[in-house]
Design brief:
Its cofactor is heme. The chain is an alpha+beta fold and 1131 residues long. The chain is built from 36 helices and 27 strands.
């Protein structure tokens, strides 16, 4: 076969040849494109501005113009080239010729020559998801739409816009802002977006919306009209880039999809309501006017009325054009007035001169309020609200294999349907002919035109007065121009004039005084406040415009009544999450405003999905995903204010991150917290560090090894709750105290805590002594030396038997119990043992897979059997006439559930909750104690001097060699100290997770002893680094040295958290300490413990032996890898 001869060298040559040919073709096409426009000066870049990757690259000369080229350059590129038409030619992925135009006469010629320079409809097809409309059409179809749509924009509608705007503003002033002389808005759009939404709701749809919540959802709907309208208008970018099948991927997308469906349903209902009504009520909102025009319009014989989908499609376009654009323009207007108080004072005096009696302005006053309109127009000139196209629509529909563009222009696009020429003047005033090849993309550079000094004197200066005299109408196109000029221009101007008039009439607008910016100059403040963003927005938008509406300028009306308005607080956190507080539910917006992913939709069945298309699609999606990951990663780092720490590709929460070993910059490995202990904190000089991973999602984790900060976190439950989703896997027997928060946790704690009584602790001691004596006198009878290949093979059964007796009231001996009770397939002892040693299998193996092997089948059976035993124990107690008093945990829990006093709204624990909680005791009380005991025995074997010290103390407490009792425990301090020192050095859990539900700051000392403020962004994972804390030399002298004596004097209780701390501290702490003290006391009383001497390790040093014996790995808890021990009976 031919393929057999394709070795690696041949393959590389083949791939290299293909790459060279592709490069040569790209270069040839690039040079040909330049020649086709006769070398017209302009930009020459490698990457097309329509390529997805350009959205994520900064401007790099010769490589990329960046995302916002038109806006960033404004008129500077034209001034540099000396011509008001420049070219923009890119080489890859497809050679693309585009002309940027900032000449008013050329733009006028183009817009009035529709057949020669049509609209590129493919860029607007995404706006047809509700139906065809006037924006996404051309030719006869556009004429048909325009004929019916235009009459809806009447003077009666404009009056309605004015009246409704005044009503909305008065509602804001008199009901929402009442009683406040100063109102602070952290970001202006959080005020202007609702205003614009409410205006379009009333004047556009005939649905009045108030600032107070309307919570009634009509029958047949799942969302109010207001909520659906709000979500649609604030999530248009998501709708444009997300295929319909992806809306179920998360709750936010699901809610966005629901909002679009609900709004469409509301609009269709409004259409049907009008059609079915016998008497057509005359209303002047756009939607009803459009319906009336569609019914009444005289059509030619070959014309048809608009279908319902077309009616809905057109009203939706009004929504898009009338909401976000006006809101952002108003925000910029207010910012400019705040920055230029002289202009604001001029406007105020003008309004006062028109309305000397302080009355409410009417629509008839609008022609006189020309200064308000001039401010609005000057803002539109400086910040033109032209639609920005976020992603290539061909790629998303998979209908083309040659274009995977990502349009992002603050310009108006056209196409040249044939070769054309334009005559323009150069900088010297000479006429120059510009050649325009057929199919060239023409972009009306709106910022370039609006900042062109040929038409606007001092174009970078805010001068509203320029719109009061003569000015060049052709050089002002925020609403486009020509035949395709926006039919809703007057709607927007009316709303803008009314809002500015009413706000300035009542309030002085200032920029919020923020402490961190007090040293900045005016130009720096102006640059900051007027900084714009285009990402995740359909129009040019301000990034962060903080306002203060100062004491009212106008304090009374003609009736002498004082006007009082209430503060509306908007919680806005730049670069993280915005919470818009106007609505019933907070609408959370992810970093940068959207969590949208550029995902492909299904292929067009007519085009087919060939290999080239598939590879380009996959490559585009991969590049986009990589860019998004990188941006989120960098944003996460910035959000912590560059707190030092780990930076890795793989998150430690992923399966891959746990499988890959620790590789710097790639992965922390499975046991990052344990492996680093305190070393990473020492390296960074701070006891709080960040751990930020890029993939699969940017994840901010804050590792904390500062005792004071941990104390603050654990005692602030509402601010730093437990991330319950990380614990949901241990609810398979029922809800429990570990996997709960808030009122549910309080309910569990109220019933569970009494079970851990002193009587239970005495039972733990007595049962532990019984089990140990059974081991010594029967299992180890007659043996002076016992070898254990791995210590946990001894400590696991001990802990199992203790939890069986003191936890479940079932005494288990070292001798095998072969009798299986009727109705069971496994003894209680076997089921308990199998469950406790196979928890990991239960967590990761689905139930249907248990029949795949005998081991899995036995594990599944053990869990079923243990659950059956526990239910039988519950029923036995419930059915018993006389309740025997027993002090094991399970029976104490059952008794507490029967006896506890509950409030009227509380209920007792169900059977599944009782079992769920006792199972948690099993998990916490078995494996953790067993592993800690194994580590304790290993430490005593490695440090015989410490073992001798504890032995001598036991002899001093028990000189006659009698069995220790529970009453002796307080004097057996060395045994508990050894157990605690082991828990310090080998904490069962190396990290305790919390979540920061709000932005927080902590003050911690650095290595030099200076206080440092650490910022923790909302949503960060707070890892209480138990290992880092327990090895922190600030709290523990020589932390790597085994020194039990440190627990006999004064020691920092806040720096020791093996049982967690605060409200969520382990209720079973005393149970574990009692068992550990008893086991260690009895072992050291009877035996000398040594490390097993193995031939292969005889040449190792003490440090090597120590590292081998104490090697640990993380499972559910930290576990020793292999601890070979020898027990030699004391004489």
């Amino acid at each position: 076969m031919l393929i057999s001869g394709l070795n690696l060298q041949t393959l590389l040559i083949l791939l290299g040849s293909v790459a060279l040919l592709r490069t040569a073709k790209v270069y040839t096409n690039f040079r040909r494109a330049i020649r086709s426009i006769r070398n017209l000066p302009g930009h020459r870049t490698f990457l097309s501005s329509s390529a997805i990757i350009v959205n994520f690259l900064p401007p790099i000369r010769g490589i990329s113009l960046g995302r916002d080229g038109l806006w960033n350059f404004k008129h500077s590129i034209f001034a540099e080239k000396g011509l008001d038409i420049v070219s923009n030619i890119a080489a890859w992925p497809k050679t693309r010729v585009s002309l940027w135009i900032a000449d008013a006469d050329v733009i006028k010629e183009i817009v009035w020559s529709r057949s020669l320079f049509p609209k590129p409809l493919q860029q607007y097809k995404v706006l047809t998801f509700f139906g065809g409309n006037v924006v996404s059409s051309e030719g006869d179809e556009w004429k048909r739409y325009r004929k019916i749509v235009a009459p809806a924009f009447t003077d009666r509608n404009n009056k309605l816009v004015w009246d409704e705007t005044c009503r909305i503003m008065l509602d804001l002033f008199n009901n929402v802002w009442t009683g406040k002389d100063e109102v602070t808005i952290d970001h202006g759009v959080d005020l202007t977006l609702p205003i614009a939404l409410f205006v379009i709701g009333a004047a556009g749809f005939g649905r009045r919306i108030s600032w107070q919540e309307d919570a009634i959802i009509p029958p047949g709907h799942k969302m109010t009209f207001r909520d659906s309208l709000h979500i649609v208008t604030t999530n248009l970018a998501i709708k444009l880039v997300t295929p319909k099948w992806a809306y179920g991927l998360n709750k936010r997308l699901e809610r966005v999809g629901l909002a679009f469906d609900e709004l469409e349903r509301y609009l269709y209902e409004m259409i049907q309501s009008r059609k079915s009504g016998e008497i057509k009520e005359e209303r002047h909102d756009l939607f009803n006017s459009l319906l009336a025009a569609n019914d009444d319009m005289d059509l030619n014989t070959d014309e048809v009325r608009l279908a319902d989908s077309e009616l809905v499609g057109n009203i939706f376009i009004f929504l898009v054009a009338g909401h976000e654009t006006t809101a952002h323009s108003l925000c910029f207007s207010l910012a400019m007035l705040a920055l230029y108080p002289d202009e604001q004072e001029i406007l105020y005096n003008h309004v006062k001169s028109v309305l000397p009696d302080g009355r409410m302005p009417t629509y008839e006053d609008m022609p006189q309020l020309n200064r308000s309109l001039a401010v609005f127009n000057e803002t539109l000139r400086m910040f033109p609200p032209v639609l920005i196209f976020l992603v290539s629509f061909e790629v998303l529909s998979l209908t083309r294999s040659t274009n995977y563009s990502s349009f992002q222009v603050t310009g108006i696009p056209k196409n040249s349907a044939e070769d054309a020429t334009f005559v323009v003047r150069n900088a010297a005033g000479e006429n120059t002919t510009v050649a325009v090849p057929k199919d060239t993309k023409l972009t009306f550079d709106v910022p370039g035109l609006h900042y062109n000094p040929r038409y606007w004197e001092d174009p970078h200066t805010f001068k509203p007065s320029r719109f009061l005299g003569d000015w060049n109408r052709d050089a002002f196109i925020p609403f486009s121009a020509g035949h395709r000029g926006c039919v809703g221009r007057k709607f927007s101007e009316t709303e803008g004039t009314a809002v500015l008039t009413l706000l300035i009439m009542q309030y002085k607008v200032e920029i919020q005084d923020e402490r961190q910016f007090r040293s900045e100059t005016f130009e720096q403040k102006k640059a900051r406040v007027l900084d714009v963003r285009t990402r995740n927005s359909l129009t040019l938008a301000g990034k962060d415009v903080p306002f203060v509406f100062a004491s009212p300028m106008w304090t009374s009306n003609t009736d002498g009544r004082i006007i009082r308005w209430q503060l509306l607080y908007i919680d806005y956190k730049p670069d993280h999450k915005q919470t818009i507080c106007f609505f019933r539910e907070s609408v959370k917006i992810g970093v940068g405003g959207t969590d949208a992913r550029y995902l492909p939709t299904g292929p067009d069945p007519e085009d087919g999905l060939n290999l080239q298309t598939l590879l380009k699609l996959l490559g585009s999606v991969a590049l986009l995903r990589a860019a998004q990951v990188y941006i989120d990663f960098r944003r996460a780092i910035r959000s912590t204010k560059y707190l030092p720490g780990h930076r890795t590709l793989l998150s430690s929460t992923t399966i891959l991150g746990n499988l890959v070993p620790a590789i710097r910059g790639i992965s922390l490995g499975r046991d990052g917290l344990w492996n680093f202990k305190h070393s990473i904190f020492a390296e960074k000089g701070l006891d709080i560090i960040s751990s930020i991973a890029a993939w699969p999602i940017s994840r901010i984790s804050i590792w904390v090894a500062d005792a004071e900060v941990i104390k603050e976190i654990v005692w602030s439950r509402s601010r730093f709750p437990k991330p319950l989703h990380q614990y949901s896997f241990i609810t398979f027997f029922g809800g429990n105290i570990v996997v709960s928060e808030g009122d549910e946790w309080k309910r569990y704690r109220k019933i569970v805590a009494p079970a851990f009584s002193d009587r239970n602790n005495k039972l733990v001691w007595d049962e532990t002594c019984r089990i140990m004596l059974d081991l010594f006198d029967h299992a180890w009878a007659g043996k002076d030396e016992i070898t254990i290949d791995h210590g946990v093979d001894l400590t696991l059964p001990i802990a199992l038997f203790v939890i069986g007796a003191a936890g479940f009231g079932r005494s288990i001996s070292w001798q095998e119990d072969e009798i299986i009770p009727p109705g069971h397939k496994m003894t209680f002892k076997d089921s308990l043992h199998t469950v406790t040693t196979n928890l990991i299998i239960k967590l990761v193996v689905p139930k249907w897979a248990y029949g795949l092997s005998k081991r899995l089948e036995r594990v599944g059976l053990a869990f079923d059997e243990l659950e059956r035993y526990l239910y039988e124990m519950i029923q036995s107690r419930k059915n018993g006439e006389a309740k025997e008093e027993r002090h094991d945990l399970f029976n104490s829990l059952l008794a507490a559930n029967d006896d506890v006093d509950l409030t009227s709204d509380e209920v007792r624990l169900s059977d599944s909750e009782l079992i769920g909680n006792i199972f948690i005791f099993l998990v916490a009380g078995h494996e953790t104690t067993a592993h800690s005991l194994c580590f304790s025995l290993a430490m005593l074997a490695l440090y015989p001097d410490e073992q001798e010290i504890i032995y001598n103390q036991i002899r001093s407490v028990l000189p006659d060699g009698r069995m220790p009792t529970y009453e002796d425990m307080p004097r057996l301090t060395r045994s508990l100290a050894v157990f605690n020192e082991t828990l310090r050095m080998f904490p069962p859990v190396t990290g305790i997770p919390k979540t920061s539900v709000e932005d927080a700051t902590f003050v911690v000392p650095n290595a030099a002893g200076e206080n440092t403020t650490v910022t923790v962004p909302q949503g960060s994972v707070m890892d209480l680094d138990v290992a880092g804390l327990h090895y922190n030399p600030r709290y523990w002298e020589e932390p790597h040295t085994f020194k039990p004596s440190r627990f006999l004097g004064d020691w920092n209780r806040d720096a020791f958290i093996p049982f967690s701390a605060g409200y969520r501290g382990c209720v079973g702490r005393k149970f574990s300490e009692t068992e550990g003290t008893a086991v260690l006391t009895l072992f050291v009383m009877q035996f000398k413990i040594e490390i097993k001497d193995e031939p292969q390790f005889r040449s190792e040093t003490f440090e090597q032996k120590k590292a081998r014996v104490l090697d640990a790995k993380s499972g559910i808890t930290l576990a020793p890898t292999r601890t070979p021990l020898v027990f030699k009976r004391r004489k």
